[in-house]
Amino acid sequence: MTCIDMEFFGHIWTGELAGAIWQKSRKHLASCGDCRARFEKLAAARVQTEEVLGMLAPADNVAINPAMAYGPIYESICSRS
Ligand SMILES: [Zn+2]
Known about the structure:
The protein has 81 residues and is mainly α. The chain has one domain. The chain has four helices and no strands. It has helices spanning 6-14, 19-31, 33-56, 66-80. The longest helix is centred in the middle third of the chain and has 24 residues, at 33-56. The radius of gyration is 22 Å and the shape is elongated.
């Protein structure tokens, strides 16, 4: 099997690969250091991205008060003038 391209890694993560193709990909990852290194690097980047996105999501049952959210920004702007 030739080395795995970036688009193919996405299919591995999303579970879109089935049967023989999945087995070939796993076998290739086990035997190819370059692909394994790229896969691990992308996996780490994916975890970091999910952590950042998790921080952006509002907490459950917490109402966002625009006045409170804008307050620190307003104070920062006013302190500059
Ligand atoms: Zn490879």
